[in-house]
UniProtKB/TrEMBL annotation:
<feature type="active site" description="Proton acceptor">
    <location>
        <position position="15"/>
    </location>
</feature>
<keyword id="KW-0326">Glycosidase</keyword>
<dbReference type="InterPro" id="IPR051795">
    <property type="entry name" value="Glycosyl_Hydrlase_43"/>
</dbReference>
<comment type="similarity">
    <text>Belongs to the glycosyl hydrolase 43 family.</text>
</comment>
<dbReference type="InterPro" id="IPR041542">
    <property type="entry name" value="GH43_C2"/>
</dbReference>
<dbReference type="GO" id="GO:0005975">
    <property type="term" value="P:carbohydrate metabolic process"/>
</dbReference>
<dbReference type="Pfam" id="PF04616">
    <property type="entry name" value="Glyco_hydro_43"/>
</dbReference>
<keyword id="KW-0732">Signal</keyword>
<dbReference type="InterPro" id="IPR006710">
    <property type="entry name" value="Glyco_hydro_43"/>
</dbReference>
<feature type="active site" description="Proton donor">
    <location>
        <position position="203"/>
    </location>
</feature>
<dbReference type="Pfam" id="PF17851">
    <property type="entry name" value="GH43_C2"/>
</dbReference>
<keyword id="KW-0378">Hydrolase</keyword>
<feature type="domain" description="Beta-xylosidase C-terminal Concanavalin A-like">
    <location>
        <begin position="345"/>
        <end position="510"/>
    </location>
</feature>
<feature type="site" description="Important for catalytic activity, responsible for pKa modulation of the active site Glu and correct orientation of both the proton donor and substrate">
    <location>
        <position position="145"/>
    </location>
</feature>
<dbReference type="InterPro" id="IPR013320">
    <property type="entry name" value="ConA-like_dom_sf"/>
</dbReference>
<protein>
    <submittedName>
        <fullName>Glycosyl hydrolase</fullName>
    </submittedName>
</protein>
<dbReference type="GO" id="GO:0004553">
    <property type="term" value="F:hydrolase activity, hydrolyzing O-glycosyl compounds"/>
</dbReference>
Length: 522
């Protein structure tokens, strides 16, 4: 039986939503505190995907300055981040609709305080054209994970996870209202339509109309170990919805496999009538999962008049489809600031970033990795493989006599990062590590005099990240200097994001130069 390899979109791409328009599939994912936001992929076969843009690609569209991060429980490594949550993508009468939530919070908000949700719609007619994406159309809904359903009578409905409060029971409920997608005005009262099969944090709703039934697919149990997909159906869009006797229809709870936390899915039908489901899951190796939640795929059997039956999600997924992933081997890519894959932290000051060929010049600001809101000078790309290397050359003379720290980092959020940084004020190279709930530590420090440049590298394996420097005094490079090792577990946790490789500059406003920034993935 032909098979493909999960995840179909590796790296930090959670909360997938998928549609097919003609013979092309489109996928939207969450992006949380990173800009540009809401990555959009396309595919002809559901297995080989190309990133074509981001629904939020202009700072004028939204402010992410309050996309803060809080530690809910340090001992459980439970870390929640605000920003752009769980988009849904839909297509109707020649227009693409992306509906989503921005969660904001104060930098000093206590762990018991919920983020504040703002919900919006973005429209586009050409997903590969950045200028096609509209400004945001806001609508009034106190919840997350909004979805759109266009009924045959022309009416549009929004469903979402209405928040009572995450310290309450129930914390959420699936609520629905009719909506004007042009203005964002709700055309009916918002009504509860389902509390889920378990009643434990129902979220991520999507509605499908098939064989005279309205099928409701949701996620439950929270997005980590107890995550699951459940379904219900009704003859009316407003319910009552009857739970599938087979619930949960998809979960990894209780399993010991690599694929864990399966949930938050969306159903799509291919050109031949085959149904399938995209969903998030994370890959766990020895209790570590730094890449976070990724996009997985499984096949679905949906007999007329019955609830769908989902195939268990595996890394090597047998489908019976005559499609296989393209063989790629090792992939090496430079970082292009104009690429939709390049990531900035919250709302960036784009005037601080310049590129000429393989050379990137950053303007340092006084913000650093510990700054809880706003932005810092940082640009990077998602880590997509645990067998990967990020490397860059920093030019030491480019900073002059200014007070700047700059270098290469592995970044997850304000509480978790590891950075090789060169400090100009004392000509020192250091490996600085921040783990959640612990003081920031300097693992190693090397004073340097008369160095011209340094090649910095982060080498990832399934077990750990190794940080290496190669120092050039004139035309001759030294041998590699091992700066330290950080276990993958330090970048893992019950969180929302995944690791990002990046370069950064923090200091007094001077410019620094980077050359040959590359990320190689296995």
């Amino acid at each position: 039986m032909p098979s493909f390899t999960n995840p179909i979109i590796p790296g930090f791409y959670p909360d997938p939503s998928c549609i097919r328009v003609g013979d092309v599939f489109y996928m939207a994912n969450s992006s949380f505190q990173f800009f540009p936001s809401i990555p959009i992929h396309k595919s002809k076969d559901l297995i080989n995907w190309e990133l074509i843009g981001n629904a939020i690609n202009r700072p004028s569209q939204i402010s992410l300055d309050q996309a803060t991060t809080k530690i809910n429980n340090a001992s459980r490594r439970e870390i929640f981040t605000g920003g752009i949550y769980a988009p849904t993508i839909r297509y109707h009468d020649g227009i693409f609709y992306v509906i989503c939530t921005n969660l904001t919070g104060a930098p000093d908000m206590p762990s018991s305080t919920d983020f504040h949700p703002s919900n919006f719609i973005i429209t586009a007619t050409d997903l590969s054209n950045p200028d096609s994406y509209s400004e945001l159309i806001y609508f009034d809904f106190h919840g997350i994970d909004p979805s759109l359903f266009f009924d045959k009578d022309g009416k549009a409905y929004v469903q979402g996870s209405w928040i009572h409060g995450y310290n309450q029971n129930p914390a959420t409920v699936i609520r629905q209202a009719e909506i004007d997608v042009v203005t964002g005005q709700l055309l009916s009262e918002a009504r509860d339509i389902w509390s889920g099969a378990t009643g434990k944090v129902p979220e991520g709703p999507h509605i499908y109309h098939k064989d005279g039934w309205y099928y409701l697919l949701i996620a439950e149990g929270g997005t980590h170990a107890r995550h699951k997909i459940t379904m219900a159906r009704s003859r009316s869009i407003w319910g009552p919805f009857e739970s599938d006797p087979a619930n949960p229809v998809l979960t990894a709870e209780g399993s010991s496999g690599v694929v864990q936390c399966v949930g938050h899915g969306d159903l799509v039908q291919d050109q031949d009538g085959q149904w399938c489901c995209v969903m998030l899951a994370r890959r766990e190796y020895g209790g570590s999962y730094p890449l976070g939640r990724e996009t997985f795929l499984t096949s679905v059997e949906w007999i007329n008049g019955e609830f769908p039956v989902f195939k268990e999600v595996e890394i090597e997924q047998g489908t019976g489809w005559q499609v296989v992933r393209k063989a790629e081997g090792k992939r090496s890519a430079g970082v292009d600031l104009k690429s939709p894959a390049s990531l900035y932290l919250r709302t960036p000051h784009l005037e601080n970033y310049h590129q000429d060929g393989n050379e990137i010049v950053l303007t340092a600001t006084d913000a650093d990795f510990g700054t809880p809101d706003g932005t810092m000078t940082f640009v990077g790309r998602r880590q997509t493989s645990l067998d990967s290397t990020a490397s860059v050359i920093i030019m030491l003379s480019s900073a002059g006599n200014k007070d700047v720290s700059y270098g290469l980092t592995l970044y997850k959020d304000v509480f978790r990062y590891a950075a090789i940084q060169y400090r100009t004020h004392d000509s020192t190279l250091a490996l600085v590590v921040q783990e959640a709930g612990k003081p920031r530590t300097t693992m190693s420090s090397y004073p340097l005099q008369d160095a011209v440049s340094i090649r910095l590298s982060i080498i990832s394996t399934v077990e750990a990240y190794n940080f290496v420097a190669q120092i050039c005094f004139g035309s001759v490079a030294t041998t590699n200097i091992a700066l330290g090792e950080v276990p993958c577990s330090a970048m893992s946790g019950d969180d929302f994001t995944g690791t990002v490789y990046g370069i950064f500059a923090s200091g007094d406003g001077s410019t620094v130069t980077f050359r040959d920034l590359e990320i190689e993935s296995g």
